[in-house]
Amino acid sequence: MAHLSIRNIGPVKTIDIELNRINIFMGPQSSGKSTVAKIVSFCQWLEKDCLLHQTVGHVDNAYIKTHLFDYFAMTSCHGKENAMFHYVGNGIEISYMNNAVTVNKTSGFQTMQVSKNLYLPSERNVLGIPGIFTTKMPNCYLLDFLDDWQIIRTKYSLDTKRHLLDLKESYFYDSKSNADMLLLDDGDSIPFSEGSSGIQSVTPLCVFIDYITEWIYSHDEDKSAYSRRKYRQAAISRYFMGKSETFVRMLDDIYRKKSPESERISQQLADLVDTLNRIQENKSDMLPVEDPDTKNLIDELTELEHGISRPSLSNLVVEEPEQNLFPDTQVKLLYFILSKVNYLRDSLIITTHSPYILYAINNCMLASKVSEEDIDEVAQAIDIPKDAWVDSNKVSVWELDNGIIKGGKTIQDERGLIRGNYFDRVMHNVMADFHTLVDYSE
User: Fold this and answer.
1) How far apart are CA 178 and CA 229, in angstroms?
2) pLDDT, position 57
3) CA distance 285 to 106
4) Nearest C-alpha neighbor of 411 from the set 402, 403, 420
5) Which of 126, 128, 117, 196 minimizes the C-alpha distance to 164?
6) What gap in Å lies between CA 233 and CA 244, rounded to an integer?
7) Cα 290 to the chain's mean position, in Å?
8) What does the angle CA 401 – CA 407 – CA 413 come to, to the nearest 5 degrees?
9) pLDDT digits (tens, 9 = 90+) for 2-43
10) Confidence (pTM)
C-alpha cells in the first residue's frame, strides 16, 4: 500500500504512517482526521490523473493549490511555513514542502491500474435541501459530490431501488419528476427531502458505496465525449511509452514547455484519438485499415483503452459514517460498508468519533479469526454478515490527538484487535462521574 507523511497542515502537527487496505482514523474534533482523509483522497485521485495523462509533468504548485487546498477548503494551509506532505503510492511519489512540489513516477507507474475514487463528505445531508442542485457554489468537493449524485442516482429506479440497511425505507430515483424518493414499508413513497436527518445521512452512503463497489464492475459507466477522448489518449500514450524512451520525454515536455517537437507529438496524439473515434463510430470505410499493421495497431490501442477506461479497484474515503444515526444503525452501517468493500482489491478510509463504529469493526476482525470448522456455527449465532468479516492484518486503526498519532502506532494489539483498554478509557470518565453521583445521591 502507500506511505504517508504530513507536517504542519491544518490541525496535523506530524504523522508518518504506512497505510493499510482499511484505515480507521478516530479522535476528537479538530484532531486532524479530516485533513489526513482529504490528503489521502487527493493523492489517490492524483495517481489516476497522472495515469490518464501518462505523465507527471502537469503537476506543479498551482495544480496542488487548485486541486487540493482550494478544492477541499484548505486554502489557508497552502504556502504555510514548514507545511509538508509526502506520499508514495502505487505509481507516483509526490512531495510538497515549503510551497514547492516534486512528483516522480515509481517503478509501478507503467502497470498501474485505473481506480474509481470516492470521497463521501460529512456534509452529505446537503442532498436533502430543496433546490440544492440549482445553488451556485465554487468548484470544490461538495460541488463534485452533488454532480456525481445526479449521475449515480439515475441507476436506482423503483425497479432497482437501494434498500437502506434493515430500515423501513428504500431509496429510488423518479425520472419523471426528477426527484429523489423514499419508498416506505407500507408501499407509500415520500420525497427524500422529507426523510429524517438519519435517513438523509445514510442514503447517500448506501447508494454511493453500492455504486462504486458493485455497479461499476457489472455495468458500463456513462462517459462523456471528453472522458472517452481522455481515455483514448491515455491508451495511445501508454502504447508509445512502451516503445520509446524519447516519447516519454516528449510527453513530459508537452506539459512542461511547448517546443516545436512536443507540439508535433501532441498533434499526432490528437490525430490518433480522432482516428479511433471514427473507427468506433463505424466510419472505418473512411480509413485505410486494410493494412495488417494498421489493424494490429488499432486492436492494441482499443484493448489498452478498454483496460484503462474500466476501473480495476475502488478507493473510498468516508467521513463520519455515524452522523445522525442511532447506535444500532451505526453498527449495521459499518457491517454494510465492510461487506461491500473487497479488501483484496479496494482501499477504505473512515474517519469517526464513534465508539460503536470501533466496536463493530473489532467484532468483524474477531469473527475472521474463527476456526474453519466453526465458521457456519458462528455465522448462525451472530448478526454479523460473513461478507463483513475482515482480516485484522488488513486493518489499521489510528487514534489522532492534538495533531499526532497517539502513541505513534495503531491502537491494536498483537492480534490486530483494538485493545480493550481503549474502550475502558473511553468509558472511564463517564462512569467515574456516575459512581460519584450515585454515592452522593444515596
Assistant:
1) 29
2) 85
3) 42
4) 420
5) 196
6) 16
7) 44
8) 115
9) 999 999 999 999 999 999 999 999 988 889 999 999 999 999
10) 0.87
- The H-or-E segment that residue 8 falls in is strand 3-9
Per residue in 87-120, pLDDT (tens digit) is 999 999 999 998 899 999 999 988 888 899 999 9
**What are residue 430's phi and psi, to 5 degrees?**
-65, -50
Nearest one of 148, 166, 170, 145 to 333, comparing CA atoms: 166
- Closest of 348, 353, 358, 349 to residue 324, by C-alpha: 353
Amino acid at the residue 135 = T
List pLDDT tens digits, range 159-188: 999 999 989 899 999 999 999 999 999 999
* Torsion angle in degrees (nearest 10) through CA of 327, 333, 334, 335: 110
Q: Cβ(305)–Cβ(229) under 8 Å?
A: no
C-alpha torsion sign, points 68, 74, 79, 82: negative
Amino acid at 301: L
For residues 397 and 403, give the distance between their C-alpha atoms in angstroms, rounded to a whole number: 16
Strands 313-319 and 3-9 come out as: unpaired
The cell numbers describing 430, all together, are 463517564
DSSP element (H, E) containing 149? helix 141-152
Residue with cell 498533434: 267
Among 160, 189, 301, which Cα is nearest to 241's? 301
All cell numbers assigned to 66: 487548485
Comparing C-alpha atoms, which of 435, 312, 108, 180 is closest to residue 171?
180
For residue 42, give the nearest of 150, 138, 141 by alpha carbon: 141
Could you tell me whether strands 22-26 and 347-352 are parallel, antiparallel, or unpaired per DSSP bridges?
parallel
Task: Indicate the length of the chain as a whole number.
Answer: 442
419: left (phi over 0), alpha (psi -120 to 50) or beta: beta
